[in-house]
Design the sequence.
């Protein structure tokens, strides 16, 4: 399972995953416009179908930064205490697959997709919460290192998404 975040980079990953038929994208309905036929809706039946796809060996990108009012687990995100859904780690645990954090960035005219080392989602609620915190901490770290990039990206990708941009994978996922 690929860990995807709500960001313009997440949208780029969704478009790329769909265009390359690399992965399905499990996210809220509005993500269907970026993922097209690769989209799986974040509803109860979508959770069941997504888990089944992972068990069959398909790759699925799942949103990790779905902030919620209740449920999930508490996290410190950019100096704010908040709650985030643990849907991604729960689905990965149910399918017994690792969570693979994905970093996307732009370098020398190329959108680069970098797969980080796989994480165990954990089989207990506490372990899943800890993996979720690790994913959220990594996202916060990327934002803190380059805050201007994140501000600019929202405006850029909301206005237009480049159609003829090449993508380079720096690491192989190693999953089927």
Sequence:
């Amino acid at each position: 399972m690929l860990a995807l975040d709500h960001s313009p980079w997440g949208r780029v990953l969704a478009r790329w995953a769909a265009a390359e038929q690399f992965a399905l994208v499990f996210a809220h309905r509005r993500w269907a416009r970026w993922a097209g036929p690769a989209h799986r809706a974040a509803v109860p039946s979508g959770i069941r179908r997504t888990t089944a796809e992972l068990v069959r060996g398909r790759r699925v990108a799942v949103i990790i930064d779905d902030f919620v009012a209740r449920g999930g687990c508490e996290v410190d995100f950019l100096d704010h205490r908040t709650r985030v859904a643990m849907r991604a780690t729960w689905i990965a645990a149910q399918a017994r697959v690792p969570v693979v954090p994905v970093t996307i960035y732009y370098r020398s005219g190329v959108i680069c997709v970098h797969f980080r080392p796989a994480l165990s989602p954990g089989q207990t609620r506490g372990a899943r919460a800890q993996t979720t915190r690790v994913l959220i901490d990594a996202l916060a770290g990327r934002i803190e290192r380059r805050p201007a990039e994140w501000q600019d990206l929202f405006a850029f990708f909301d206005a237009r998404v480049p159609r003829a941009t090449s993508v380079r994978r720096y690491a192989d996922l190693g999953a089927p």
Notes: DSSP finds six helices and nine strands in the chain. The chain has one domain: 2-169. The two ends are 11 Å apart (CA to CA).
